[in-house]
Design a protein that fits this description.
The protein is an alpha+beta fold. Helix content is 31%, strand content 19%. The protein has 3 domains: 170 residues, 2-Layer Sandwich (Prim-pol fold); 150 residues, no CATH class; 216 residues, Rossmann fold (3-Layer(aba) Sandwich).
């Protein structure tokens, strides 16, 4: 008998993830060609599973039919809110607010019709279809069909690579996305008098939701309090406004309940200001030269008036602290005060070139000097770790190696090393020290060794990578550090973006190579930034190397280093470059 995959998955959701799930009917096409069976059977009372979880025995009984589909209950029971996007524009809006700094920020599923389901931790956002155009919120009172449930025409729901619920946990919804959705929801709500037994449904007339009705009164009162407090309205005015609203509803609300809403709103505004102050402080650290306040809004994804006001207040506070000063006569333009000095002693040697060997003899283009850092930004499965391991194997007889791995440990690491054509177990054990480490690398850097970090997990505040790289460099003496970071598929730089370009003397990227844009033919390394040129007339910037990766560790170059574009080669050969 063939395996019932849907039953196996349902039991995994229930037993391994401790989720409340329900069975959904198999897909069925209506006269318009749409799936009209995204619901349980008619007599199935699913709402009870918003407050209790089914037993494994119930799950086994429900999913005996392999054509059944699995739905995960949204809301408090599973600490889950799902944003359902049915268009590329809706997807773009959500992804603009996702931190670019985490490899797999939150579970993401795709639907049979090409939609995207973003799984977040539960919020107080109400469930609402079309909260924005082609964007639904699945929250308390809703459910979401989950992989590997089937769709029409043999297609099904699936997890995006690296973003499955079996790989990552739902993150808290980003504050900027939360505020955007809350603002959009508020636009669709209008006020009505809360009379009992009112027969007219205002939704039928306006398409809007009803406010201040049973089940959402407390939430709406908080929304009013929050809107007033965050714009600077006095607490007494806010209290009186809430009391008038409550009286108009014809209901009694204890004074302490009104004050509770006000206190919650004040706390949220204070938290917002504290969080934005720290975000702005870190963002300013990464800036060079002058900048506009609006640039901080854009890069930090501040879209609401409250966020922008808190951002401006944070910048003015930094001016008072002497961190920033006004620049020129243009409004809203500031510059960072650069008052740190590092004395240069031109006749004091800082150490000679290190005899480091690079992939495909790239050392013929650059000098590897002490107290320097190097970055390799790679897409998933493009060979980033293979490059790091080969650099360790090629140089362990020249300099002590400290290898910090955030993914591979123990047997997994050993099973990969033995596949290398250069594997010498005795030499590896003697000359390379492997460590399990995923953060705070500056605390464990060996100042006089070749430190390899595979990889640096960039936090949601991706501008912090500049500080992390600076801290690592400051811990070096005669040693160096090679640091791997993740790069989004198709992006030019790693997840730290331009923030990771300042300190490294060499910045390379590695990604799959597709000459026709459709078929992958090996991988390619690209030099984005290179300093300490060996020959001042040969510019290593923009060089590329195509290679094949065999057995996950052996690198076979397809030719040598070459320029991706003809103009790059001309620049290198005929124009003397400048370097810092």
């Amino acid at each position: 008998m063939p395996e019932n995959k849907i039953l196996k998955s349902a039991l995994w959701y229930r037993n391994k993830k401790n989720l409340s799930i329900i069975p959904i009917l198999p897909p069925h096409k209506d006269e318009k060609g749409k799936d009209n069976c995204k619901m349980p059977e008619k007599d199935f009372e699913w709402k009870k599973y918003q407050s209790e979880k089914p037993s494994p025995e119930q799950v086994s009984e429900w999913f005996q039919n392999p054509a059944s589909r699995i739905a995960i209950v949204a809301g408090k029971i599973n600490n889950l809110c799902v944003i359902d996007c049915d268009s590329e524009e809706a997807k773009r809006i959500v992804e603009e607010h996702l931190p670019d700094s985490t490899l797999n920020p939150t579970p993401i599923a795709t639907s049979p019709r090409g939609g995207y389901h973003y799984y977040f931790q539960a919020t107080d956002l109400p469930g609402k279809p079309n909260a924005m155009q082609n964007l639904d919120i699945r929250s308390e009172g809703n459910y979401i069909i989950a992989p590997p449930s089937a769709g029409l025409n043999g297609t099904g729901y699936s997890w995006q690579d690296g973003c499955g619920l079996h790989e990552v946990e739902p993150m808290a919804i980003p504050n900027s996305l939360y505020l955007l959705l809350r603002e959009e929801l508020n636009k669709s709500f209008i006020y009505i008098r809360g009379e009992k037994n009112k027969s007219q449904n205002i939704t039928d007339i306006t398409g809007s939701h009803r406010f201040y009705v049973e089940g959402r009164r407390d939430e709406d009162l908080f929304t009013v309090a929050n809107a007033l407090i965050k714009t600077g309205i006095a607490e007494n005015f806010t209290r009186q406004t809430l009391e008038i609203i409550v009286q108009n509803l014809g209901e009694n609300l204890e004074p302490n309940k009104v004050q509770e809403k006000i206190n919650s709103a004040i706390k949220r505004v204070q938290n917002l200001e504290v969080n934005i102050m720290e975000e702005v402080r870190q963002w300013v650290k990464s800036q060079e030269g002058h900048f506009k306040v609006t640039e901080c809004h854009t890069e930090s994804q501040y879209i609401t008036k409250a966020q922008k006001h808190a951002c401006l207040m944070s910048i003015l506070r930094l001016v008072k602290e002497g961190v920033l000063e006004k620049h020129g006569n243009q409004r809203g333009v500031y510059r960072k005060v650069e008052n740190e000095l590092e004395e240069i002693k031109p006749f004091q040697s800082t150490g000679s070139e290190l005899p480091i060997k690079w992939i495909a003899n790239f050392q013929t283009y650059i000098k590897t000097m002490p107290k320097t850092i190097y970055v390799i930004a790679g897409e998933p499965d493009a060979g980033k770790s293979a490059i790091c391991l080969n650099m360790a194997l090629m140089n362990c007889d020249k300099i002590p190696i400290s290898y910090f791995s955030s993914e591979m440990v123990g047997e997994e690491l050993g099973s990969r090393l033995v596949l290398s054509e250069d594997c010498d177990e005795k030499k590896i054990n003697e000359r390379i020290k492997f460590y399990d480490r995923s953060s705070n690398f500056s605390d464990v850097i060996n100042p006089n060794a070749f430190n390899i970090i595979d990889y640096l997990e960039v936090s949601k505040d991706f501008w912090e990578v500049a500080d992390q790289l600076k801290d690592i460099r400051n811990k070096l003496n005669k040693g160096i550090a090679l640091i791997a970071i993740q790069k989004k598929r198709g992006s030019v730089l790693g997840r730290s973006a331009e923030f990771g370009l300042e300190k490294p003397r060499l910045y390379m990227t590695v990604e799959p190579y597709s000459p026709d844009g459709r078929h992958v033919d090996g991988n390619i390394i690209k030099v984005v930034k290179a300093k300490n040129w060996r020959d001042p007339l040969i510019n290593p910037n923009y060089l590329t190397l195509k290679f094949k990766l065999v057995k996950g560790i052996n690198i076979y170059p397809k030719g040598g280093w070459d320029y991706e574009y003809e103009d790059d080669a001309k620049y290198s050969k005929f124009k003397k470059g400048t370097q810092k």
